Amino acid sequence: MANQNSDKISIPNVHDEAVCSMGDIRINNKVVANIVRLSALEVEGVVDVWGASVLSCLGKLLGKDRSCSGIRVGEDGHGNYVIDVQVVLRFGVELAKVALDIQQNVTQKVSDMTMKSVGQVNVTIEKIVQDTDVDSTQPNTDYAIN
To answer: Could you tell me the fold of the domain covering 27-145?
Structure first.
């Protein structure tokens, strides 16, 4: 059985000296925002990631204020991701439970895929909709990067 352990493949961690000596690994925050969006949408009860309409955001965007979008990705003083996500939920779900599930799924997926810690996932429930109000043909792709 000792041979089974030695046969396992080791996956390098970005913090290992051997990996770091080969060069820097950088992940664009847009990629992280996309992971956040897809992770939130995996949670049962989530209809969409909230983003304001283009017209209402146009003035803010021209002024370089990206606060009208549904996802923000930044870092705290320790280099951990700080993520804000605004969501639309389905009417009738337990709001706090779905928000907690979003926090857990986003944290897990971002950590697993980037090998970087997540310090916070702040969830804001912006809207709830009934099943008849859901338009699944036009998913929202708005997100902001700090």
So the answer is: Alpha-Beta Plaits (3.30.70)
